[in-house]
Specification:
The structure is a single chain. This protein is α+β, with helices and mostly antiparallel strands. It is built from three helices and eight strands, in the order H-H-E-E-E-E-E-E-E-H-E. The chain starts with 26 loop residues before the first helix and ends with a strand. Strand 2 and strand 3 form a beta hairpin. Strands 1-2-3-6-7 form a five-stranded antiparallel beta sheet. A three-stranded antiparallel beta sheet has the order 4-5-8. 20% of the residues lie in helices and 25% in strands. It is globular and about 45 Å long.
């Protein structure tokens, strides 16, 4: 399914739909109405183009402004029980290497050209298996294994290199989900044969 946003990716409504008007819609329809590109759009499965900073700082700021506007709209209609949410540029139709990550009680992290430099535990059988969802197909969740810790390198808007460590299992899972988006990889791509996709109420 392709959202209307995918047909006009430069447009984000000045005013998001009122939460009252969204209650009767499926979760994926709500997210599409808020500006989230939905499963089936090729932008979600195509690797993004990295930024050249500081030369492309204005372009990075433009995309960051769009990411923040859509993320704010999502927060107004959905509570994230895991304590974190992320949004990657392809999910708003921008094929560039940027994601925002919001963990409860921490400042927003802007990840530009992020790279995974280390994960743990070393052995995959020791990774955590649980469910995760995606704003681009919010009607169901997937069961998959992810590392419990992750170290991510990225660029700041000034073009400086930075490193962030995520040493709590859910945060590591959520940030790896966003980094995957920038490579055109979706969580459904990690689902092991025979694993259940759980319907979302």
């Amino acid at each position: 399914m392709t959202s209307d946003v995918a047909n006009d990716r430069k447009t984000v409504p000045d005013q998001a739909p009122h939460p009252q008007g969204l209650r009767s819609r499926r979760a994926s329809e709500v997210m599409a109405a808020l500006g989230i590109v939905q499963l089936g759009d090729p932008v979600l499965t195509t690797a993004t183009r990295p930024f050249r900073l500081p030369e492309e700082r204005d372009e990075a700021l433009r995309i960051l402004q769009r990411l923040n506007a859509v993320a704010d709209a999502v927060h107004r209609v959905h509570d994230f029980t895991t304590g974190a949410m992320g949004l990657a540029a392809p999910q708003i139709g921008e094929p560039r290497s940027m994601a925002v990550f919001r963990a409860a009680g921490a400042p927003q992290l802007v990840l530009i050209n992020p790279q995974v430099i280390e994960v743990g535990p070393a052995h995959r059988q020791d990774w955590e298996e649980t469910t995760e969802g995606c704003l681009s197909f919010f009607d169901f969740r997937c069961t998959l294994r992810r590392p419990r810790t992750a170290v991510i390198s990225y660029l700041t808007l000034a073009g400086d290199e930075a490193v962030a460590t995520f040493d709590r299992g859910r945060l590591a899972r959520d940030v790896l989900h966003e980094v995957d988006h920038l490579s055109g990889v979706l969580c459904v791509d990690h689902v092991e044969p025979g694993a259940l996709k759980l319907a979302k109420a």
